[in-house]
Each structure stands twice: as structure tokens, then as C-alpha cells.
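Data card: per-record layout.
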Amino acid sequence: EGRLYAFGAKEVTKPMAHTNPNAPAKAAADEAAKTTQGYALVLGLNDGSTAESLAEKYTVIAIDSDAAKVDALRRHFHKRGLYGSRITLLVGKPLDYSFPPYLATFVTGTAPNANNIVEALPKIFHTLRPYGGTASVSVLPKDLDKIKTAVAEIKTAQFGSLETAQGCTLILSRPGPLPEAADWSHAGGGAGNTGSSDDRFLRGPLGLLWYDGSIRWQRQPGKTEVRVAGGRILVRADRMLAIDVFTGRRLWDRPLPQAAGAGAVGEFVALDDAIYVAAGRMCIVLDAATGKERARFPMPKNMPGSLIRLRLWKNHLIGLLGKRVICLDRQSGKLQWSFEAGRSQLSLAVGGGRVFVAELINARRGETIAKTGAKTHALDIANGRKVWSAPGGAKVRYSEPHDLLLASTAIYKGKDGAVHRQGKLTDPKKDEWYYQSGAHIAGDSLLVGGSDNYVLYDLTSGAKQGGQMKWFRRGCTPMRTSPYLVTTRYKGNAAYIDLDTKKFQPIWNLRAACSNNIFPANGVLNVPNLSGGCTCNYTPTSMALVPRAVLKVKKK
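The structure for this 556-residue chain is written out next.
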């Protein structure tokens, strides 16, 4: 709200003012509503009409080698009120220009000849955003047969989908996630509560994909939650918002869902199509693409308690109401079954057609497994019937790929409860297993330790993989893990540990947040800013990192 001063030899009482032209009514309305559907790349401008029509739906980046044409169209789009806000034009060779990976929702253009387009296919695919990025490139009729032959020789694994369609148009798409990538859909990573994502695409060393200093919100200590699913970073703080994993683009921003009598908004679970929010005596369902409320599932009247510990597996929505485990149909909210445990403090893990519920003990109050009789139960997810039981007492973590359940006294086979490996007592006089001092199932490994140290074991064999890793954390950030990375705080800053090399990589001057805001998921190391309301001198920046190899365009 300050003033602008200009100094010179003569005073100008009425300086010339250049106002921005008004954008067309439809584009202006879209801009106000922030309804753009991502970035579109236009490879070759022609008369600029394609770029202008796409600007009604996308933020357009167009490139052409003709500098004079680019200059003329920049002036044209400026007069139309589109340039710099909905359209950006660049000078360069369209098929050779270096764009970052995963940028574009849509790519279009015309290929000058068969050789160029075949060579450019990996470059075009490099720019496509996972979860639906599509390129439509027109080719000359005389080149179509040659292109089809070349396309058939390209390994299909390199491309999500590649085909010729609609006459002389080449359709290239990336319809799903990155290969071997995984979501961070629950508080504990996934429904198995492993404390880890199963993202095997993300592997060090990492490089910067994007950063943004504008994404800020007022955090609520102990209540801010983040999920990463379906290409979206979803944040619940003083409101709920969604950010594009691959570009940092703001997707939607809404107040926290409220309902009379529903209770306070608690934890949530995110899938690529829906978000399930626990709110007291209600489960509120939001549309993942828009954040709009889709449905509300009231809790059964004869079952007291607030809904907590949400888990989603296929079409089953699992949660806790007091001592009861409940299972709802995730589409209709209809109660499928319920199971009453022996204690009110419970831990849940779901997967492999089973619901694992552990009755927890309070060791600080002198409780032991032997004195309380605490159990871990395995329930059939289809009907809630008990399949097997074992000693309880500690939180459970379940690896669905290995069908192994980490419990208080052993690692069990999830299917039948057979002991896969017996636990070892740190002190024979105590009912505590050394794994339960802190453990994460990270892919094929078991990380055992605290928030500033760990020892790595092979999950199936129990073989120790090196000595103890220990670091100076300075702060209260817990670990998050994936098969190849550990995220933490190192000397007060956000950091990750490369499990392949055992090396630390600090992300200097970024706050790792008390709850750890570094999430390995969707093939990206996601670091959304959680410094709102913090008085520390950290940079309030959100960023994303990816394997350095994907920052380079792969050749044919």
C-alpha cells in the first residue's frame, strides 16, 4: 500500500498510465474462478488460433522458431488481455525446446516430418503430467506408415499409451501414475499403517522439480495433516486445499467442512477420486478433484464414540468408535459389520483381506501384556469374523506385498497368524519387544529406532543391514520413510537420507515441521510449506524434488 516515486529534471503532474486490456469475458470469468485445467504446450504457432482457443481451458505455453511471428502474436494477445496471464510465447525450435518433466496436461502441434517426430516422442512424453497428460500431434499423410513402424519399435514400457488415431494424428498419453509410484493416502502412509509409502519410483539423488513461496496457511499445532494421492497434495490446516504434485499449481482451496452436530474435523484419508474426513459422529466425503462435499455418513446411533483411525481398502471404509471396529461401504456409507475389542485404546492396520486390530497397553502406568491380556486380532474384512488372535499391546504395521504383520511380540503371517519371526526382548523383565521402540516397514526393509536414529533390517529374513544411523536432529520431527528414502530433520533443517548410499541431503533453510512435512509419494518428494504461524527464520517455501535422472530427457 506504499507509494511509487520517480525522480527527474522536470516534474510530471499527470504521468501516463498504461492499463491492462480486458480479457474476453469467458477467459476473464475462468481466471476469476481459477478453473484452468493445467498447462498446455503448443508446439508451433501457425496463426495463434490454437493457443487462443486453448487459453479458455488451460494456461498456455507456446513455442515457435519464427521470432517475428512470436513478437506479433505477443502484441495481439496483449491487446486481448491474455498475454502473461493465460498465454506465454517463447522463441525456439518446438521439438527441441527443453521443458521440465510432468508439466503439461495437454500438448499439441504439427510435426514437420517423420524423422523429427520419432526423435521427439521421448521429449514430448517427458513433458506430460501423469494421471491423464495427453499429446495430440498432427503428422503428414505420407509419413504415417513410417511413423507407425517406428512407434511399433519403441518399447511400450516407455510410454503410457501411444497410438495413431483420427486420421493423421498421433496420440501420446500418460494415463496413470508413474511406474511403481505410490500414494501417501493415510496418516501412516497407507491402510497397512507401515509408517511408509511403497513408492519405489522415488530414488536418490534428487533434483528440484518446482518451488513456490505463495502457498501459505495458518497451521494448527498437532492438527495439520497432509496426504498425497492421485497427483494431488492435500492439506488440512485452518482450511483444506489441494496442490498439484507435479507443478505446484493450486487446484482448490476451501473452508474446513462443517456440519451441525458432526463434531470437529479430524483425520482424513485421500484416494484419487474421494477424500474421507472423520468429523465426530460423521464421515464427510469430499470430491478429490474439486473439494466439494459429495456425501455424509452418520455413525450408527447404538454405537457411542467419535470416529477415529480411518482406513480404506478397496470398497471398505474401516474406523473406530470407542471399543468398536466398524466397517462401512465406502460408496453408500452402509454399515457392513462391527467388532467389539477388549480395550478402548486400539491400533488398526488393513490389507490382504484382513483388518488387524491391536489392543494397546500403557507401559508408563505399569501395564503389561501379561497383566492386561491385551490381544491382536485378525478379522475377515468381508464379514468381521475373527480369523486368529495373538498377544497385543503395541501398534500394528502390515506389509501387504509380504503378507507380514509387525505386532508386539512377533512378526506374523497375515493370512493365518503363523509366526514368521519371534521378537526379542530388550529386557527379559519387561513385556516389550525391541522392534516396538519405533519401527517402519519401508518396502523390503524394517527400520527400527527413534526419530533421530535407526537400524536397518531385512523384513523377511531379519538380517541386519549395516550399523546404527544417528544424527543431530534439533527439533521434534518424526521420520517418514519409503523403500529408498527416509525424511527427517537434520541440524534443524528439512532433510532426506538416501538408503542406497546412507548419505544425508539437507534441504537448507526449510523447516521440516513438527509433524514432518516431507512426503515421499507419487514419484516425488513433496515438501509443502507448513511454516504458517511459525516465528522461526525458515524460508516459507513449498517445493518438490524428483530423481535427477528424470530431469533429463530420455533418448529413443
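Known properties of this structure: DSSP finds six helices and 39 strands in the chain. The first strand starts at residue 39 and ends at 43.

See the next section for split statistics.
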